[in-house]
Amino acid sequence: MTSIYVCKILDEDEWNRSTISDEWSTAQGTAGGCFNFPSWRTNPQWCLQLAEPSHAHFVLLQPDARVRHTAADARHTIGMYIMRGHDKFLRRVLVDSDEIAGDEVVDSTDFVLRREVSCNTLDEEGEQPLAPGMPYIIMPSSFKPNMDGPYRLVIYTHGKPTKLE
Q1: How far apart are CA 26 and CA 147, in angstroms?
Q2: Do the beta carbons of residue 65 and residue 115 sit within 8 Å?
Q3: What is the DSSP string of 86-118?
Q4: Are 14 and 7 in contact (CB under 8 A)?
Q5: Residue 46 pLDDT
Q6: Residue 100 φ then ψ, to 5°
C-alpha cells in the first residue's frame, strides 16, 4: 500500500491564524454527532465574522491516537460544517438538518477516521470569499453522538477576524 500526503504551506505574511481548543462532552451536552442525528445542533458552534472579504482554510484536529494520555483522547470519525449564521438567532444554527438549504452550508468535510480534516473556500472554481460582516458558524463534530474528546480548530483568513467566539 502506498500513501501520499499533501501539505499546503500558507504564507504567514498573507494569512492570519486563529486557534480554538475545546472538547465534545456528553456531560456538557456538546457531543451531538453529524446531521444524521437530531442532536447535531448541540455540537459546539463558533461564530466567525470578518471585516473584509476573505477566503479561508478551516482545519479540525484531534489528538494523535498513538500518543494517548486519557480515554478521552481516543480517535473518532470527525468532520465539520461551515454555515451561514443568522443574526436573529444570535449565532446558533437552530434548524433541523432537513430544513437546511444547500446555500446555507458554505463548505463541509467528509466524516473520516483521521487525526485531521480540512476544507476551504478556494477549492471550487468561482467559489466566492466569505463576505464581511456576515456571521459564519463553524461546527466541528464527531460522526456519532456522545463521543467525548478534545479537538482543536485552526482557521486561516486574510486579516484578523472581527469576531471569533
Answers
A1: 7
A2: yes
A3: -GGGTT---S-GGG--GGGEEEE---BSSSEEE
A4: no
A5: 94
A6: -80, 120
**Phi, psi dihedrals of residue 42, rounded to the nearest 5°:** -85, -5
Specify the DSSP class assigned to residue 152: E
Distances (CA, A) of 42 to 13, 59, 93, 128: 36, 20, 9, 29
Phi first, then psi, for residue 153 (nearest 5°) are -115, 125
Instruction: List, for residues 104-143, the tens digit of each pLDDT value.
Output: 778 889 999 999 999 988 767 778 899 999 999 999 999 9
Please, are residues 162 and 50 in contact by the beta-carbon 8 Å criterion?
yes
- Euclidean distance between the first and final Cα of the chain, in Å? 42
Distances (CA, A) of 17 to 3, 56, 59, 135, 161: 28, 10, 11, 18, 10
- The pTM score is 0.85
Q: How far apart are CA 36 and CA 17, in angstroms?
A: 31
Query: Which pLDDT does position 91 carry in this prediction?
Result: 45
